[in-house]
Target: Carboxymuconolactone decarboxylase
Amino acid sequence: MVKKQTAGQKQLGKLAPKFAQLNDEVLFGEVWSREDKLSARDRSLITCASLLTQGAFPQLEAHLKMAQQNGVTKEEIVELVTHLAFYAGWPKAWSAFDLVKKVFGD
Model:
């Protein structure tokens, strides 16, 4: 079961309350909770892949932590990054591996 997210409220609640609400209630509340359609583990893999290809590394770090909580292994993330290096670019893979080491350890 997906853990209730409150990052939007904590980080942007005062500045952008509607965005924070959409983040917490719609994206993480409604979309991520549709585990009968796609597991949280699979959503984590997909999200990490998307963030890596975009070069969105601050968000990737947060989602790597979520992926770990959702049962994704270090070996699976390493394979994901290795595979995407050829599609997203070698420098992005290098940057992603720094985050993988930070989150999952060497």
About this structure: The chain has six helices and no strands. The chain has a mean pLDDT of 95. The radius of gyration is 14 Å. Residues 39-106 form a domain with the AhpD-like fold (CATH 1.20.1290.10).
